[in-house]
Design brief:
Number of strands: 5
Strand order of the largest sheet: 3-2-1-4-5
Structural class: alpha/beta
Distance between the termini: 53 Å
């Protein structure tokens, strides 16, 4: 059987002042329960985590993580696109086994990203669309895994640097985050090219 597969891409963490940017790349099976999906920002933390478990169990997926230092070196847009490429590379390694489970002999992949840019990935037809994370199930799924995994990382960072409150605001530019940076200086995971 030969099929066309759609890979959804999305990132989490372009706006924060600290921590990594993460990205997901996801291909969903035909029988996936899409009713559990939405733009990750519109789901509660509990619903996101429940959905992520199902995505990771049933879908072919990859996760890309780009740290704060690399963001400072290459800028946040390039870092976000690089995270998407890393996510795709992880996913593509899993694809042959996933295809065999779904009895697919041959496939070709097209991709859709949320936003106005596409990552540089050879051999795949890519397009971008603003608000795709609220329209296309594979992009919603990518949005969910990127957000859940980044939130986990920021909670781990909170345990290392409790003064900064990362578990609460996840590194986003809240008044409390800016205040603590001005009072005691940037944390070791601060994006120094971002104004805090």
């Amino acid at each position: 059987m030969s099929v066309k597969l759609i890979c959804g891409f999305d990132e989490a963490g372009r706006g924060p002042l600290a921590g990594p940017v993460t990205a997901g790349a996801v291909i969903l099976p035909e029988d996936f329960p899409v009713e559990i999906l939405n733009d990750s920002k519109k789901l509660s933390e509990k619903k996101r985590e429940e959905a992520e478990k199902i995505i990771m169990d049933k879908a072919c997926w990859g996760l890309g993580i780009v740290d704060h230092k690399t963001i400072d070196e290459m800028n946040i847009l390039k870092a976000s696109m690089y995270a998407m490429r890393l996510a795709y590379e992880m996913m593509i390694k899993k694809l042959p086994e996933w295809l065999s489970v779904h009895h697919v002999d041959e496939c070709w992949i097209s991709g859709i990203t949320d936003g106005t840019s596409v990552p540089d990935i050879p051999g795949i037809e890519l397009r971008c669309e603003p608000k795709a994370d609220g329209k296309y199930p594979p992009v919603m799924a990518a949005s969910i895994i990127a957000k859940v995994e980044r939130d986990k990382i920021m909670c781990q960072m909170d345990a290392l640097y409790p003064a900064y409150g990362y578990a609460k605001h996840k590194g986003y530019p809240t008044a409390a985050h800016r205040k603590i940076c001005h009072e005691i200086g940037p944390s070791p995971i601060q994006r120094l090219t971002f104004k805090y």
